[in-house]
From TrEMBL:
Keywords: Signal. Residues 35-321 form the ABC transporter substrate-binding protein PnrA-like domain. It holds the Pfam family Bmp. GO terms for cellular component: plasma membrane. It comes from the Bacteria. InterPro entries: ABC-Purine-Binding, PnrA-like, TAT_signal. Residues 1-31 form the signal peptide. The lineage of its organism: Bacteria, Pseudomonadati, Pseudomonadota, Alphaproteobacteria, Hyphomicrobiales. This is ABC transporter substrate-binding protein.
């Protein structure tokens, strides 16, 4: 399929029509490629958040009729507005993916209002019906993959002490910490998780300090929710601990220490978006999915993962893909002894209560602020 000349009119609806170069399927020399812009807050080879998006952009580069332009290390300030305008005015971008969480409000909203004939897709889940209709947000239920990592971690720990290096205590981060811990307790009811918050998405020095501090306290399996897991993975492996990755597959960094990981699957989603646009299908302004929708995935198991752990994790993963399995199923208490999900209550992935999660579950130690 040739994706040249995606219609701007249809981009307003989150969809587009195709103009084929000729009936023979050869694109006309006069037909320009459709240009798609990607903006990253960090390096696109960070073995983390930005690399996951860059892998998705790379998948689009393989599709005929598309031109992809990228800009990395763009801060969450009005600098992203300048980058967006440059991509539009100089490169002719008509579909933009500003990927960092902090880009959206006010920057993406401002640009979407300024360029109402273009389409803006933001990763992070902040769109509301009060926002421009030519903007949208997409995100994945990556806590499903974190839950699977937790199961593997629960089987793999010898001390029963797990560690989590986290950036900020916002709902999505807390949701990942809690899912990881609930998965671990499913495999090992005595497992506990110690969390250290660094304060921001990319702070390698503090991430290294947190990793070493957790290991000094007896933690022998670690994971994280920061932009670049490379620091945690390499430091933990150097200290003899095992790791579960995040964002992308970090096993090349620590082949013997890597157990599994929670990965984004933008390589599947971005081509899907473009194909939906080309087919005239509307992309919902608020787009979500998990393992079943192939928006997230699990890293392959490392050599240290036991057959028992693999079987249990695979069984639960199959149930999540099939649908109907609930991670946050009551009764669940927080780490202060308060019941946060009552017995008989299931909080499925679309439950709005999960979008505003502000607690850590029983078995997790670490302050939320």
């Amino acid at each position: 399929m040739d994706f040249a000349k995606i219609s701007r009119r249809h981009l307003l609806r989150g969809s587009a029509a195709l103009t084929l170069g000729s009936v023979l399927g050869v694109r006309s020399a006069a037909a320009a490629d459709t240009t798609i812009g990607f903006i990253y807050v960090g390096s696109r080879d960070d073995y983390g958040y930005n690399q996951a998006h860059a892998q998705g952009a790379a998948a689009l580069k393989k599709m005929r009729g598309l031109k992809v332009v990228e800009e990395e290390k763009v801060p969450e300030t009005d600098a992203v507005e300048k980058t967006i305008e440059s991509m539009i005015n100089l490169d002719g971008a008509s579909l933009l993916f500003p990927t960092s969480f902090g880009y959206y409000n006010p920057h993406v909203i401002k640009m979407a209002n300024k360029f109402p004939k273009l389409r803006f897709e933001h990763c992070g889940g902040l769109w509301s019906d009060k926002d421009p209709k030519n903007a949208g947000s997409y995100f994945g239920y990556i806590d499903e993959a974190q839950y699977i990592s937790g199961i593997v971690a629960g089987y793999s720990t010898k001390s029963g002490k797990l560690g989590f290096v986290a950036a900020k205590p916002i709902p999505q981060v807390l949701r990942n910490i809690n899912a990881f811990t609930l998965g671990a307790k499913l495999a090992n009811p005595k497992a506990t998780t110690q969390v250290i918050f660094t304060g921001d998405w990319s702070m390698p020095v503090k991430e290294a300090e947190a990793t070493n501090s957790l290991i000094d306290q007896g933690v022998d399996v670690l994971t994280c929710h920061v932009d670049g897991p490379k620091t945690m993975v390499e430091n933990a492996a150097r200290r003899g601990a095992m790791v579960c990755g995040y964002h992308v597959n970090q096993s090349p960094l620590a082949p013997k220490a890597y157990l599994t990981g929670a990965e984004w699957n933008w390589e599947a989603l971005y081509p899907k978006f473009v194909k939906m646009i080309a087919a005239g299908e509307a992309i919902p302004n608020f787009y979500r999915g998990g393992l079943k929708e192939e928006i997230v995935k699990c890293s392959p198991y490392g050599e240290a993962v036991s057959a028992e752990a693999r079987k249990h994790a695979d069984d639960i993963k199959a149930k999540l893909i099939a649908g109907g399995y609930t991670i946050f199923k009551g009764p669940i208490m927080d780490n202060k002894g308060k019941t946060v999900i009552t017995a008989g209550t299931d909080r499925g992935q679309k439950d709005p209560e999960l979008e505003k999660m502000d607690y850590l579950v029983e078995g997790v130690t670490g302050a939320t602020s």
